[in-house]
Amino acid sequence: METKTTIFSFIKDYNYLGTGSEIKRRKLMNKKEIAEIKKQFAAKHAVVNIICMTYVSEEKEILFANKEYLNQMPEEEAEQYLDLLKKGLSGKIGKNLYTMDFPTVDGGSKEENDFQQVRKMQEGEFLRSIIDTYQTSNKYVILEAHGVYDVPGEEEYVYEFVEIALCPVQLSDDKLVCDASKQIICGRVRDMLLSAPTDAFLYPAFHDRCEDVHSVLYYTKKPSVKQDALLENLTGNTRPLSIDEEMDIFHSSLEESGIGSMEIVGQLYDQIQKMQDATPDEVVPSCGLNMMEKMLRNCDVSEDNIEIFSQIIINKIGKNGRLRLNGLMDTKHYCIKNNYFDIKTDSELAGDVFVKEIDGQRYLLCPIKDSEVEINGITFQAR
Q1: Among 91, 165, 278, 313, which is least packed by CB within 10 angstroms?
Q2: pLDDT tens digits along 14-67
Q3: Distance set, CA 63 to CA 60, 145, 146, 192 (Å)
Q4: What pTM value is reported for the model?
Q5: SS3 4
């Protein structure tokens, strides 16, 4: 009897780096590293020392620009600036936050990029290039924060960074206010308010408790609003696919190739979940076409369907394209729905839910692990 190839036969001690590997991992800023830097954006830490502000009109004209020292600001005002900057380090990795590498030249990274000049307070044409390529119809402010973080550890290390945050300026709501001094209720004067950033950059990226001058952390508030011109101008690359976009590619490719049954989806779910569980938090593994094909063969998918699937994937991301494991399926939730029901179950039951025909009628069956069942808030014993 032929032994079926298991998914783990392609993973050995997480050394799945290199061009020949079926699964690759890429060094990205992880949650812990982002949280460590974000935590420093507080007045009490005195890490951020200089903030430069450039106010830009809808017509891409600079209305004014100035520089402020946080230690000379009132504490409340300083905290408001820092809160805006922290927003640029918020959200989910792969949805709002992306570690982006700069292009390589002759097999190595570029020795100099625009962010390095900004970090040295030598902006040059940097601000003008942002203004020319940032797509918006609103006034906005470019916040440029410079900071120095003494990284704690056995060896002394200083992480010198700059964050660029693009913050829309919006007119405050028109409200009635009570003016006790005049004893009247009247409309208040509407102000131009600085809002949370739509896009932000942290340079250099912070990896393994030290700087990585060859990459930058990019934040977007709305992944659906793409700033490709801005990113290509500043980083030489377009934004990587978001988790949702990668998931849509994988799911639609399965559907278009005719690969779709509860058993196959459950088996794929199980394989992906096991690989993710076996992966360290700081690693973001991705898989190429060969690995996807092997996963499908593990589900006993026909070679004809696999061939169709492969061609669809190639058309969408290229022959050498890769998708992150957490971009294939949402392994935190297992949801089943149609026009009549919407069921959410524990991920551990993914392989136990199936369809069975009884007396000519198809039923969705899943085991009841607990004797108690709740329907519309009413609890009863399942018998």
Answers
A1: 278
A2: 233 233 344 444 567 888 999 999 999 988 888 998 999 999 999 999 999 999
A3: 9, 19, 22, 14
A4: 0.75
A5: coil
